[in-house]
Each structure stands twice: as structure tokens, then as C-alpha cells.
Amino acid sequence: MAMKRHLLLAGAAVLLAPMATALAVPPEDTIVVGISADVNTFDPAPISSRDNSNIAKHIFGTLYEITPDGDIVPDLAESYVVSEDGTSYTYTLREGLTCEDGEALTAEDAAYSFNRAADPDNAFTGNTPGFVFSSIQFQGAEAVSDLEVRIDLGRPNPVSFGLIAEVFIHCKDSYEAMTLDEAARNPVASGPYRLVSWEPGSQVVLERWKEDEGNFQNIIWRVIPEASTRTAELIAQNVDIITNVSPDQIDAINNSGSAKVAPVQGTRRIYVGFNMSDDFADTEGGAAIQNAEVRRALQYAVDVPSICTQLLNFECERATGLVNPPNGNPNLVPYPYDPEMAEQLLDEAGFPRADNGVRFEITLQAGRGRYLNDVNVVQAIGQFLSDVGVQTNVELLDWASTYVPLISQRKAGPMFFLGSGGGTWSPLYDMTDLSVVGAGTNYTHWDNPDWFDRWTDIAAAETEEERRVVINEMLEVFYEDSPWLLLYFQPDFYGVSSRVAFEPRRDEKVYLFDTKLAGN
């Protein structure tokens, strides 16, 4: 019962929605989206968060795009071929492509986009160099003709085509003429929209410059960190779509007569990471979590199903790993909530309670307002851990300005709350967060060779059946020696005005190209 009271108290922290700002209903050529977190860059290479990437996708094209069903479809490129050994992909671009400043977009620009992101002098830490390139072992890109660009990999990877499709393409001459600081604030578009203005902490305004793509002339992304304020703005019809609807406000939206909530089971993996880097090893809590038995004990300390039902308003089965259902290892069973087992394992690991009841003290860092009801979820996790003697100090940070840089530099911790985007089209896509020890998305610095050495077996597998055996063995290693305190796959609640027709995706990609006014 004590655990339930912790959750109820955390949930009680949600405030009633304030009165909406007196704004006009958007004109017919404009769509307004309320998001919870600001962007921190418009340079395509260092972008690392989903909100940032969602806006950037309207500004920058990619060679191909992955649909919600996992199909790969053309974008700037019209076709591609893979070498016989699977270590190079050659894309043929569409003719007549340009960037917004009139510069022709050719294979040279596509190659430059890849090579620029990998250039060590730029020291980028975003999704492209930190996740995509480490996963495919990017070797380099070369224009082999005006319209053909070849991407060379270090080893074959069955999901390379999907990873390459995440790299934003931009024009070489434009970006060579800018400093990195200038590129962060002044994007030159290759996609259908261009940046009009960015007021940090307030809004991003885009306008369409390619007339044959997108149904709205203008897109306004309003940064509204408070969930209650986003709800009020939606009901007042000042915004058309909001993300991260708070579970306690679903009924208010559905009963408003002006909007509805569109729920979807998302693919984002929510977890608490254990940062095992040397930076934290000399701290009390950082040293404790180096011990695999301590990490395993803490799995039993958190009541994940109760967090889901009481704070997120949905029934969940706890995750057994980093792979979205139904692609996980079917033989693994979710860790149960068993605080007595947690206490026993902590005792056995050499961390008994002291006279004051504390085993060790540790900091749990989190960004504020990025994930569904995240502040209350993090506070509940901190209380669960404190209840088994691990005194947990929850440190809530601004998402865009403070937390994202810490995450990107792999310096959050010793424990940190995070959600990593995933997919259902391949287990390997989810697993490539940990493709190599030094991957930018290995925020925990986990280095278990029983996981990392198996990627060569994945590459060598000749059939899906052989590959699946290796995948299951790797997922068992992750479960037993997990660098994550395993939580849940986040549900997503979108608020959608009756003014527009918008279909949310499971992967949190808020793409507005097909969105239109209702009835059109």
C-alpha cells in the first residue's frame, strides 16, 4: 500500500489547466503544433532528439524514408542497389533537385552530407554520427556520377537501408560557407519547408517553398512545456495538434467538442540508464552500479505495472529488453515487483543498510517535460529505490538546454531517465543503440563482450533463422546484465483538433506532409 500512495502523491502534482491565451484560430493555410520541448539546433548532423528531428524532417530531405509499416520508399533518391557483399549502397538521385537558395542538389551534396557528419574536426554527437554511423560502421561516401552516390560500410548490416534513411541531406556550397554556429541557426532547406523564424523557448515557424509537397503553406511549432497549457490551447483551438497529452486530461479533451485524443502504442523504449563510465566510478552510487548484481537487484525494486496504470493511464507489461514487441526474446519473463528480493540481492552484493537505513546514495537525472508524465514517473522511481535503501536524489533538468547536451556527451548520471526511439520492423533496429561500445547512443558505457562481440555473428548469419538464434542469445545477455533498469514501451496520446485530419504514427514521427483540413 505504501508504494501505491507514492504514485498517487506523484500524480497529484498535476495542475489544472490554466486559461488559454487569447489567440486566433489558425488560418486555413497554417497548421499549429504544440510540442513539449524546444529544439537546440537546426544543423542536421548533431540533431539527437525526436522533437528536433520532427521539425528538421520538414526542412531536410533524406535519400529514402521509412513508412510507419517499415516499408522503405523514395525521397530525394529514386532507386538504390546494394553490392554483392552488402558493404556498399549506391543511390540514384532524382533529377532537378535544388536547395532553397537555388543551389543544385547532386550526388556530391549527398556524399558531403554523410562525410561532414563523420568529420572528427566537427565533433558532432547527434543521431547521425552517434547512432547511424556506429551501427553501419560508416567508412565514407563518394559521388560516382552527378546523380549517383555510394555509401560504404565496414560490414554488412541487414537494416542498413533503414539507418541510412535517417541521414538528412543538405547542399555542400551553402554549408561550407557557414560556421558551425551559423549552421545551427540558419538551415538551408533541401526538403519542402524552410525556416522563417526561431524564437527559442517559444516557437519555430516554417513556410513551404516547394509547392508540390505538403498541404499547408505554413507550419508553426509552438513550444509549450506544461501539459495542462497544451491542453488548454488545443481546446481553445489555438493549436491543431499537441503531443504528450497528460493522461489526466484525456477526458477534458474528448469532452471539449473541439478536439479528440488519438492514442497509439508507441515504440519508444523508456528506461533508467546506469552510467558505468569512469566519470562516476569514484562516487558512492556510481561505484555501486558498476556491480551487475546491484543492477539486477534494482530491477525488482520498481513497480512498473503500477506506474503504467496510475501515472500513464494504460496497462503495460514490463519490458524484458530493448526490443519492441513482438520482436523480443519470447523466453524472457519481465522482472516482477519484489522489494524483498531487491533487499536480499543488495545485501548479498555487499550493500547492507547502514544504521540510518541507507545502503548507498545516488543521483537520478531526468529532463523535464519530454516524455509522458515524466516528472511524476521519475519521482515515483526515485521513491521505489529509496524504499529499498538506495537513497535516490532526483535531479530534474531543462530538457533542451541542459539535459540533451549531457545525454549527447554520455555524461548523464550516475542514473538517468531516458526514452530511446524504436521500431517494429526489425529487432536489429532497436538493438543498434548498442552496436559498439563507443556508440553515441551507448549512454551507459556498457561493455559486455558477450553482447558486443556477437555483432560479427549477426553479419555472418546466412539466414533469418540463424540470425534469430544470435539475437535471442544477445537479448538474454542484455536481460541478465542489463545496463538499463527496464521499464515500458511508452504509449503516445496526441490531441487533435476537429479542424484537421491527422493520423499519428507509432514511432513518434510527427510528419505533416499528408495532414489536411478536415473534410478536404
Automatic annotation (TrEMBL):
Q: Which GO terms describe its molecular function?
A: peptide transmembrane transporter activity
Enumerate the transmembrane spans: none
Which Gene Ontology terms of cellular component type are present?
ATP-binding cassette (ABC) transporter complex; outer membrane-bounded periplasmic space
Q: Where is the secretion signal located?
A: 1-24
A biological process from GO: peptide transport
- Which of UniProt's keywords are assigned here? Signal, Transport
SUPFAM superfamilies with a match to the protein in the record: Periplasmic binding protein-like II
- The segment(s) forming the Solute-binding protein family domain are 72-432
Pfam families per the UniProt record, alphabetical: SBP_bac_5
Q: Where in the cell is it found?
A: Periplasm
Q: Which family does it belong to?
A: Belongs to the bacterial solute-binding protein 5 family.
Write down the PANTHER family for this protein, in alphabetical order: OLIGOPEPTIDE-BINDING PROTEIN APPA, PERIPLASMIC BINDING COMPONENT OF ABC TRANSPORTER
Task: Name the chain's protein.
Answer: ABC transporter substrate-binding protein
